[in-house]
Specification:
This protein has two domains: 4-230, P-loop containing nucleotide triphosphate hydrolases (Rossmann fold); 231-347, Beta Barrel (OB fold (Dihydrolipoamide Acetyltransferase, E2P)). The chain has eight helices and 20 strands. The chain is elongated. It is an alpha+beta fold and 355 residues long. Helix content is 24%, strand content 33%. Helix 2 packs across helix 3, helix 2 packs parallel to helix 4 (137-149) and helix 3 crosses helix 4. The protein has helices spanning 43-51, 93-104, 108-121, 137-149, 167-184, 195-201, 219-224, 229-234; strands at 4-12, 18-27, 32-36, 58-63, 66-67, 78-81, 155-159, 187-192, 204-209, 212-217, 241-248, 251-254, 259-260, 272-276, 281-284, 292-301, 306-312, 315-322, 333-338, 344-347. The structure holds adenosine-5'-triphosphate and magnesium ion. The site of magnesium ion has 2 residues, from helix 1. It comes from Phytohabitans aurantiacus.
């Protein structure tokens, strides 16, 4: 097993597209590291460079203690699972698993042992003698994962492996992958554009935007203190509210009269917005203690919660997460209250977290 060090990785395609722009990643041995970002931000390119399927323009990649820049994929000792898993259609599960091992020339007994072990881990028992077309999407995906497992690589690289599965199966597989990675302790780099997947899987998450790393942190860190407006709008569903504020006597005042207590170290003379999560706000009866006037724009009941969109001081898109029992109709005059916690504060011009 091994950690992965990516240093100043830069990839410029021949047509001039900069897909990866000086990315640094330090992935720990045994870590489940997620790369998250919107389509086109450079996730796949980064992963393919680590795998050796794409040559970087500049920068270094180390797997364990080995500088792998000039090593072909087969010598990097990693296993990759893609969104579109290519199983051999004419081979039964058992032989799909054994194929890469036979290709490596491992003795028969060793091949058998490893195939049986991977089958046990991925619970493939009843599926071992079926061909891919007789397997469901999720089962095929488990076979593809098992085929990566049997090689016992130093690291797994996964590129949106669950995208083609339905929501329920995806949630199951997510649990399975997380459990498996924990059991094996093998370093894993997992690429997704799905923030829920990133939050639930990753020990740490790197958020990428236009080829650059915007933030690296634990799920809690990136949720509580997004490093930039981009991260604030990308993480969380619905995302953080970004409320224009002015500083008066050391407090943050919104146009609609909300008063928030900022974290220490607030910069002076800058245009600021406060990032407030929907669950840090409350919709109340009008005039309730500590509330300011607001109006309900819409209320979306989701069964376990209600998401209110309220107009607050002319900002018509403030989102509030409430328990399902509280009901205010569209257009109702209500109160809006900050229910606690410290907002994240951003500079409007640099778009960076400043406090
Ligand atoms: N062979 C190529 N030639 C030129 N540009 C490319 C090539 N491959 C990818 N790109 C560009 O590089 C950028 C990054 O692409 P990449 O596939 O790494 O994104 P991604 O984050 O994996 O996106 P997605 O979530 O859609 O898979 C994009 O702008 C893409 O158009
Ligand atoms: Mg991709």
């Amino acid at each position: 097993m091994a950690g992965i060090e990516v240093t100043a990785l830069h990839k410029r395609y021949p047509d001039g597209t900069v897909a990866v722009d000086h990315v640094d990643l330090s992935i720990g041995d045994g870590e489940l590291f997620v790369m998250l970002g919107p389509s086109g931000c450079g996730k796949t390119t980064t992963l393919r460079a680590i795998a050796g399927l794409e040559r970087q323009t500049t920068g270094d990649i180390r797997i364990g203690d080995t500088l792998v820049n000039d090593l072909p994929p087969a010598e990097r000792d990693i296993a990759m699972v893609f969104q579109f898993y290519a199983l051999y259609p004419h081979l039964r599960t058992r032989d799909n698993l054994a194929f890469p091992l036979r290709a490596e020339g491992l003795p028969k007994s060793e091949v058998h042992k490893r195939v049986e072990e991977a089958a046990r881990l991925m619970r493939l028992g009843p599926l071992m003698d079926r061909r891919p077309r007789r397997l469901s999407g999720g089962e095929q995906q488990r076979v593809a994962l098992a085929r990566a497992l049997v090689r016992r690589p130093r690291a797994f690289l996964m590129d949106e492996p669950l995208t083609n599965l339905d929501a329920e199966l995806r949630a199951d597989m997510r649990t399975e992958i997380k459990h498996l990675q924990g059991q094996l302790g093998t370093t894993m780099v997992y690429v997704t554009h799905d923030q829920v997947e990133a939050m639930s899987l990753g020990h740490r998450i790197a958020i990428l935007n236009k080829g650059r790393v915007e933030q690296i942190g634990t799920p809690l860190e990136v949720y509580d203190r997004p490093a930039s407006l981009f991260c604030a709008e990308f993480i969380g569903s619905p995302p953080m509210n970004l409320i224009e504020v002015e500083v008066v006597d050391g407090k943050l005042h919104s146009k609609g009269g909300l008063v928030l207590t900022p974290p220490p170290g607030l910069p002076r003379d800058r245009s600021l917005v406060a990032g407030v999560r929907p669950e840090a706000l409350e919709v109340t009866e009008p005039g309730a203690e500590g509330s300011v006037p607001a109006r309900v724009v819409s209320a979306e009941g989701l069964g376990d919660e209600v998401i209110y969109v309220v107009d607050h001081g002319g900002q018509r898109d403030v989102r509030v997460r409430m328990p399902p029992t509280v009901r205010f109709a569209t257009d109702a005059s209500v109160g809006l209250r900050h229910s606690g916690g410290t907002p994240a504060v951003y500079d409007v011009h640099t778009e960076d977290l400043v406090a």
